[in-house]
Write a structure and sequence with these properties.
alpha/beta; 8 helices
């Protein structure tokens, strides 16, 4: 459920800024797991979607872009990254379009698991609650919660419906923008699969694409790998890993079992 302030400082740290825009149905606190990985040289701020009004029309992409630009006006300063995930990626892109003259040169734009271009392929808004929840789970666009379905429907679906309406019938139109654009995707994401991100990289003239093992919500489900990818995009040195303990010294008359072979390091997908 969406509660609390509109702008949330998740970590007060160093001068490098990470500004987060949530996915459809998400909130500022959707980035809590990611923040646990962030080192003290970064400051992390997340935006809370606008509150729903009983009789108001859901905001479209332009309105969301302007809302976030006003809300985060003091945070849109470099050096740093604006990270938009899923719907948040489309909103971040539109925000960079509409506010290009005031966009700092050292503020990168990371579009994580962005939606497919053009009109939405699935008419999710017309589904009843249980059908929408079933489809959303199958596509991995809602987090897995150990709660009864009725409670999940009450907590998550109003925000999900409202956010999905932002794409409307036109959807998202990716065009090159002034800020440096980077793409981030899950290797097993059925909503924004690698083939789609490859096409988007050409359309957006992206500086590069990085992959994280996982599905659509890798920002939540794979926070360590996500932060490692963000550090590479930022040009930061990789995080230091603990060195393996030194093997014990042999003592006369004592047999020492050989240590298991070390696993090969993960290859950089880029």
């Amino acid at each position: 459920m969406r509660t609390g302030p509109d702008r949330l400082v998740l970590r007060e740290g160093g001068p490098y800024r990470l500004v987060c825009l949530p996915y459809a149905g998400g909130s500022a606190r959707s980035f809590t797991r990611l923040v646990r990985q962030v080192t003290e040289d970064w400051t992390v701020v997340a935006a809370q979607p606008p509150a729903a009004h009983a009789h108001g029309t859901p905001p479209d992409l332009d309105e969301l872009a302007d809302f976030y630009a006003d809300l985060l006006a003091t945070d849109l300063a470099g050096p740093g990254i604006v990270l938009g995930h899923s719907l948040g990626a489309a909103v971040a892109h539109r925000m960079a379009q509409r506010h290009a003259p005031n966009w700092p040169a050292d503020l990168r734009l990371v579009l994580s698991a962005p939606p497919r271009p053009g009109p939405p392929r699935y008419a999710l808004a017309g589904l009843d609650d249980h059908s929408l929840l079933s489809v959303a789970r199958a596509r991995g666009i809602v987090p897995e919660l150990e709660l009864p379905d009725e409670l999940v429907i009450r907590l998550l679906l109003p925000g999900l419906r409202r956010d999905l309406a932002a794409l409307g019938g036109r959807g998202w139109n990716p065009e090159p923008v002034g800020p440096p654009v980077h793409l981030l995707g899950g290797t097993d994401d059925p909503v924004s699969p690698p083939a789609v991100l490859t096409e988007l990289a050409d359309q957006l003239a992206a500086r590069g694409t990085r992959w994280v093992p996982g599905g659509h919500l890798v920002v939540m489900d794979q926070p360590e790998a996500t932060y490692a990818a963000l550090r590479k995009i930022a040009g930061c040195a990789p995080l230091a890993r603990p060195r393996p303990a030194a093997p014990p010294t042999a003592v006369a008359g004592t047999a020492i079992a050989p240590a298991p072979a070390a696993a090969a390091p993960n290859a950089d997908p880029d």
